[in-house]
Every structure is written in structure tokens, then in C-alpha cells.
Amino acid sequence: MLTSTDTGSLATGAGRRFVVVASRYNARFVDGMLEAAITTFQAAGAPTVDVFRVPGAWEIPVAAAAVVRRPGVKPDAVVCLGLILQGETSHARHIGDSVSDALMRLSVKQGVPIIHEVLTVNTEAQAEARCLDPRTNRGAEAARTALEMAALMDRIAG
């Protein structure tokens, strides 16, 4: 007999602890994602969402690591929000690759869903579409993913 592993309809925030680590760099765009994430968590019934701001994308992994390693306060999921705007050099690519790798390693090692929405975009128009447009806001998408992964992790744990 097959059993469904779809947790989308079970994704509620009630009784869960969520954390958002968000960059202050490119604040106009990151703040748009942050507002959408918080609104999505609140709509799902999450009682509290802790928000930690860091200077830039580079600092997100170390703050996320500190959050999941806090004794006695393990979150159900951590949402990481940032925006890297590609310039004329390869610097943005190096930052983006390093942050991505660090967040994946942290998630797997700690067994906590780390939702990666540290976006690397080529233009401000791309940033506006992903961070400020309510229809395609990646902050809301990240919160929905965190809710779903928290429910899935509970289900896997039995």
C-alpha cells in the first residue's frame, strides 16, 4: 500500500519556532522578502518568528549556524534571506557559491531545514520581480517551504 508523503496541506505554524536570518545589504529588496515571509508565517499561525539581521550575505551562514546551535532553542526551520546583485567582477558569484555551500552543509549536519533565499540576480528588475512583487515574492515562498519542511521533518521523525 502506498502512503502519501505530501505535507503541503499540513503546513501549519502553530506551536512551531521559526527563525529568519536576513541581510541588511540591499535592504530595499531584502526587506520586501522579509515582510512577505513574516506575513506568510503569521497567516499560518506561527506564534513567533525570531528575526536576526546581519550586515550582508556573507554573514548569513555564521548567524544561521549560531541559531541552530543554541542550546535548548532548536528552531523547526531557518529562513535565510539576502540579495546579491551581480556586478562587473566575479565577486558576486564567489559570495553566492560560498553561502550556498555553507547553508547546505549546515542544514544536513544539524538536521534542521535551512531555507536558502539568498538570491543572486543580474539586474534590479530581476530583484524587484523576486523581492517586491507579491505574486512572485521569494520571501513568501521561503516561508511556505519552511512550514512544509517543518511538517515533513515531524512526520519523518514519527
Shape: globular
Distance between the termini: 18 Å
Oligomeric state of the chains present here = single chain
Question: Largest sheet, order of strands side by side?
Answer: 2-1-3-4
Rg (C-alpha, Å)? 15 Å
Major sheet size, sense and barrel closure: 4 strands, parallel
Q: According to CATH, what is the topology?
A: Rossmann fold
**Relevant CATH superfamily:** Lumazine/riboflavin synthase
**Helical residue percent band:** 40-55%
Overall structural domain count? 1
Q: Can you write the helix and strand succession as a string?
A: EHEHEHEHH
Overall pLDDT confidence: 91
Structural class: alpha/beta
Kindly state the number of beta strands: 4
The low-confidence runs, each spanning 5 or more residues with pLDDT under 50, are: none
CATH architecture, please?
Answer: 3-Layer(aba) Sandwich
Q: What is the strand content?
A: 15-25%
Number of helices: 5
Structure, described:
The protein is α/β, with parallel strands linked by helices and 158 residues long. The protein has one domain (16-157): 3-Layer(aba) Sandwich (Rossmann fold). The chain is 47% helix and 20% strand. It has 5 helices and 4 strands. Strands 2-1-3-4 form a 4-stranded parallel β-sheet, sandwiched between helices. The longest helix has 20 residues, at 91-110. It is globular. The mean pLDDT is 91.
